[in-house]
Recover the amino acids of this structure.
């Protein structure tokens, strides 16, 4: 269990290095399309600091919410560790590992989406922060782009919710036998269910990017006419 907690802590710390929260030049990973060559390289520092603080709070809450689930699995994890220390290739080790995985799987299923939500919220927050000296027209384009991306992620979550039965089937099959045919078949079924969701997300994000570029181009045209 200590090892599991250490992994979770490391994951949460690593999350603080999100590209979208970087306070750097505007042409980095979190840069909005259409602004790559504009002379406004820095985000507002106070806004970025607030976004980072929000991510810290979100990650801490996610860890706290998932902790009881991991703690409840501690006896099974310790039993697996003892069984495998005595005979790593034995049936007792394999059975203990399977039991521990079955217990831990729902914990990870609870934690990982919460972490992803923290990452997405932090990135959206940072993207919505104004650039120093940014003209109002370009600022409005950027805000619209962030909202478009957020709507695409909401649609993705709604689509993924339709695969709940396949997710449960995979969890049960793989907990019973991670290397078995039933686990592989259930995994394939889940991937097939989720694939349209991923494709829809990519298409929606492409639309967001095209709209943002057009918006910024219109701003540039207005600037040139003045």
């Amino acid at each position: 269990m200590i090892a599991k907690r250490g992994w979770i802590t490391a994951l949460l710390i690593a999350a603080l290095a999100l590209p979208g929260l970087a306070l750097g030049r505007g042409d980095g990973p979190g840069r909005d399309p259409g602004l790559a060559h504009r002379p406004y390289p820095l985000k507002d520092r106070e806004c970025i600091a607030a976004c980072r603080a929000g991510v810290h709070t979100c990650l801490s809450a996610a860890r706290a919410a998932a902790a009881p689930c991991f703690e409840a699995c501690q006896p099974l994890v310790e039993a697996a560790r003892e069984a495998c220390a005595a005979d790593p290739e034995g049936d007792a080790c394999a059975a203990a590992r399977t039991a521990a995985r079955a217990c831990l799987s729902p914990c990870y299923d609870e934690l990982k989406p919460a972490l992803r939500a923290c990452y997405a919220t932090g990135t959206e927050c940072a993207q919505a922060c104004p650039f120093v000296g940014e003209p109002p027209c370009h600022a409005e384009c950027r805000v619209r782009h962030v909202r478009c991306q957020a709507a695409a992620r909401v649609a993705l979550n709604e689509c993924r919710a339709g695969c709940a039965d396949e997710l449960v089937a995979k969890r049960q099959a793989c907990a019973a036998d991670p290397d078995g045919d039933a686990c592989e078949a259930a995994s394939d079924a889940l991937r097939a269910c989720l694939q349209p969701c991923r494709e829809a997300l990519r298409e929606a994000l492409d639309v967001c990017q095209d709209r943002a570029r057009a918006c910024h181009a219109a701003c540039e045209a207005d600037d040139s006419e003045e």
Remarks:
- Residues 12 and 59 are 6 Å apart (CA to CA).
